[in-house]
Design brief:
Among the domains are: 54 residues, Membrane-bound Lytic Murein Transglycosylase D, Chain A (Roll), CATH 3.10.350.10; 100 residues, Immunoglobulin-like. It is built from 4 helices and 11 strands.
Length: 268
Amino acid sequence: MDAKRGIAIRIAMLATASIAAAMATTAGSALTDSGSDESVPLLQPTPFQTPTPNAQGAILYIVLDGDSLWRIAAIAEISVEELMALNGIQSGDFISPGMELVLGSLAATPVPIASPTPTAVTGPLVGTGDICVLLFTDDNGNARLDEGELPLSEGQVSVVDRDGRVQGEHTTDDNVDGFCFSDLEDGDYNVSGAVPPNYNPTTSMNVPVRLLPGDTKFVQFGGQPSAAILQISRSDDEGSSLLGVLGLALLAGAGIVGFYAVRSGRTP
């Protein structure tokens, strides 16, 4: 009986030792994994919600309060036209917080299969398109729209066709999406912008645009406050006032001299 009890005790001790070894191995693996994680650089904070790919490889972005197509396109480093095409957005459509937008794809782009050449359509292709214009406050003067730069109100934008006819004019406001001149016939146009008083333009204010049927073209103009011009204007006003005072003094002096000259001439 004592021999059987001794054998049972030894078996229990061996089982306990095996369990302890297994637990130590698991803990070591966890520490090793934890140590390897420390070598991975931490993600840096970004000023916008980081877009993430879905199961199909499409890179998605959730629209936040205050977002606009211009801002999201600038963040994603793509054009507004590309952003609209990826999401089927038309001119005049609006985005709202919580909307899911596609910024691109991680999946390999399939090679298109050559298709038979379609039969040529007789006659010219005609149609209409849109030209959207944004006048913005170029705070850093780098001639491009950056995140955080706001629309510039009280400026002017216009569209003129190749024959010099004005197709539309608009006074800018605080709409972050700018203003769209819609249903313009396809052809060549000149888009012009003018900054409000006391601002200097930081971009070219005349842009030629060729509009094809179904196109939506985007044009941006920048302006920057002109404190120097305001200072020069104040100096000019002060100088003009001083010259006016001096002129009046000279005229008064000439009148006095003339009066005494006349009196001297009448003296017997």
